[in-house]
# Entry
Amino acid sequence: MERKDFLKSTALGIGTISIMPMVNACKTETKNDTIAVTTEAEIQEVLQPKIVKNNEGHLLNVLGDNQNIKLTGQDTNGQYTLIEQNNTPGVAIPPHVHENEDEVFQVLEGQVEMNIGDKMTTLNAGDLIFCPKGVPHSWKVVGEENARAMLSIFPAGLEGMFKELSELPAGPPDMEKVSEICGRYKLRFV
# Structure
């Protein structure tokens, strides 16, 4: 290969290598016949690192389910929500279906009985279950000790529903009101 051909191919290769990360990091959107390009720097402005210490987060009691919201859609650019649950034996959520969200439920301490579709299993510390959207599921804390679990919800958004439900008056829940709130988030009880 002659020197000038080598330099051309090398320069082209280096140019391609330096441009490709920028192309991959950009997102284009068409709006009113204009194209807006989001640069890597702008993406970094949206997604900032966040450290959440053990006792930090946003505490909610959602119809008896003690939640500590660790990451919201605002923190993850709508990608997911992360919630730590800490409940006593007997606390349960009835069978329900999500139209929009997949969930990963991992038990960190204690035991949780999970029903998904037509299967029932008991999860112990370290076990997890994937609950895809459209599949009925429920859970109940069983055994003698409190259960602590981490719930990941994909995509984010249900934290708004949990906040609304936590603001309902104390006492037996008004299931008509609960169903109305959940319905707005495309979650229904079965």
Confidence is low (pLDDT under 50) at residues 10-31. The first strand starts at residue 27 and ends at 31. The two ends are 71 Å apart (CA to CA). Residues 3-25 form the longest helix (23 residues).
